[in-house]
Design brief:
Pfam families: Acetyltransf_1. This is GNAT family N-acetyltransferase. This protein has a single domain, classed as Aminopeptidase, CATH 3.40.630.30. With 182 residues, it is of the alpha+beta class. The chain is globular. It has five helices and eight strands, in the order ββαααβββαβαββ. The chain has an eight-stranded mixed beta sheet, sandwiched between helices. Helix content is 26%, strand content 30%.
């Protein structure tokens, strides 16, 4: 069972945050799938959205996988997860003129909050709790370019857009966003 984390960011709801790692995936996988199903119920027929279980297994298979799940009264309200990029495999480098002195990067793969808990501050708490424990110098993530408000939210969390990328033929075009952590 994940251990509770302190509350770094205020929110409008009382949510307990629990941290999980690579070895915990079998026990939390269904929670991630259930939160995703609720969050994307309006897009359930989208083939890219339907591949989410593959992404959970892919990211969770990384030994550095890290996940924070928020619970209110025992009910999962959202999660965030990712993993460090391998040394020399910082795919975002192609968008910068010069590689930073310390390119160590944590890739934030998913941040998801169920509809009932959106706009309550939960996403900020989940995100900051995940990154607070990281030793990497930077964090990178992708944001669907058709969601400018989500991109603006990440910009308010000190990310900056450095390019655009479509990682899969059936995926949306994403803004590549980078943030310095240290």
């Amino acid at each position: 069972m994940g251990r509770p984390l302190p509350r770094p960011v205020e929110s409008k709801v009382n949510v307990e945050l629990r941290r999980y790692g690579h070895g915990d995936l079998p026990g939390i996988r269904q929670v991630l799938l259930d939160v995703h199903a609720d969050s994307y119920s309006d897009q359930a027929g989208d083939p890219f959205v339907q591949r989410f279980p593959w992404f959970v297994d892919h990211w969770g298979g990384n030994p550095g996988f890290s996940c924070v799940i928020g619970y209110e009264g025992g009910e999962p309200v959202g999660f965030v997860y990712g993993a460090p990029t391998g040394a020399g495999r910082e795919w975002w480098r192609e968008y910068l003129a010069a590689t930073p002195d310390n390119p160590s990067t944590f890739a934030v793969s998913e941040l998801m909050v169920r509809p009932r808990w959106r706009k309550t501050g939960v996403s900020a708490r989940l995100h900051e709790s995940l990154l607070r424990a990281r030793s990497e110098h930077m964090a990178v993530l992708l944001v669907d370019t058709t969601h400018p408000r989500v991109q603006a939210l990440y910009e308010s969390w000190q990310y900056r857009k450095i390019g655009e990328r479509q990682p899969f033929p059936d995926s949306p075009l994403y803004a590549v966003m980078l943030r310095t952590l240290r």
